[in-house]
Write a structure and sequence with these properties.
3 helices
Length: 134
């Protein structure tokens, strides 16, 4: 696989519930940053720089093409990286991101996808009465 390309088998699936829960928080901003290169500061004082692949409703983030930087050791290169939301201290929002537009677009996309996910109600066949002859 080419560097920087996303392997679909490794992409974390985002459920409809995650999308809906994200609408009520600023997580929708991070979810709208799919494909954007940014830096995530961890509570351990390490920094993870990479491209956002997916963001779950608990702010857990999957990233690809990652460099992990720490004061305690030299930088580490990783193909992919997953961090649980509880370990995130701060997410850098690049200056190229227009916050209000990104949030509105993400909410619109979520509402559009939830409409597509709805299945039409199945028509229940009404029981037909059979005439019985005696």
């Amino acid at each position: 696989m080419e560097p920087g390309k996303v392997n679909p088998a490794r992409e974390v699936a985002t459920t409809l519930n995650d999308l809906k829960a994200g609408e009520r928080t600023l997580v929708c901003l991070l979810q709208g940053m799919h494909g954007v290169r940014t830096t995530v500061e961890l509570r351990s004082d390490a920094e993870v720089e990479g491209t956002i692949l997916s963001v779950e409703s608990d702010m857990s983030i999957s990233m690809v093409d990652v460099t992990i930087k720490s004061d305690l050791r030299p930088p580490i290169q990783c193909e992919d990286f997953y961090v649980v939301g509880n370990f995130i201290r701060y997410v850098h929002i690049p200056t190229t991101i227009h916050v209000e537009k990104t949030i509105k677009k993400r909410i619109h996309d979520t509402q559009t996808s939830s409409r597509k996910e709805r299945r039409p109600r199945s028509k229940m066949s009404t029981p037909t009465a059979r005439a019985t002859s005696k």
